[in-house]
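Model it.
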Amino acid sequence: MKNNNEKIALIIGGSRGIGRAIGLRLAKSGFNIWLTYRNNHAAAQMVKTEIEKKGRTCDILSFDVSDYSETEAALGEKVDALAPDVVVYNPGITRDNLLVWMTKEEWSAVLSTNLNGFYNVMHFVMFPMLREKIGRIIVISSTSGQIGQAGQVNYSASKAGLIGAAKALAREVGEKNILVNIVAPGVIETDMTEKLSKDTILPLIPLQRFGDPEDVASVVNFLCTEEHMYIHGQVIGVNGGLAI
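Modeled.
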């Protein structure tokens, strides 16, 4: 059982990059963190240590979000016993290729993790949150899911699908005091973007810089903590003006 002053944030995909920044920011705001990751144990342990230095607790859970059985084993009993106050859905992988050359594996891997994983997680999380009649869900999509990106048909499809799924979920659960919103980052300085050509991309961004993970985390933190909240079912772009 948690005390009345304890808040729990479940961060799906929280060991690196944007997920790590979100975990640290929410810990700073007083949340205890449940952090999930697939297989980078060292990175997850480092984030756990950083969060605990902030005086919060951090449970780390390793499983493949695209696997329904693994998701059930990791989350089913845990969330049923103690519903999280916040869920941030952040897993994301890329297998970039032009569609004409894209393999079935490249298509399926991205859709399975980025989109099917959303169902796997929410299927177990929703009943406990509905029981409590309170909570906030933040889905991390992408600018690629809003405007498309050549060479990323699979990634763009998965991130656009998340927008549609989150908007539909917002219509289903809003009356139960569960707020659902989408954050769509643009080009953020992470492992996923380190090989991109700044000379090519920066002229397309009015702010003339790549974003930092903390730029995304600050928006997620606002959506999770602001008391006077009337934002629901919305897509908030964090892209420096790349998509206007």
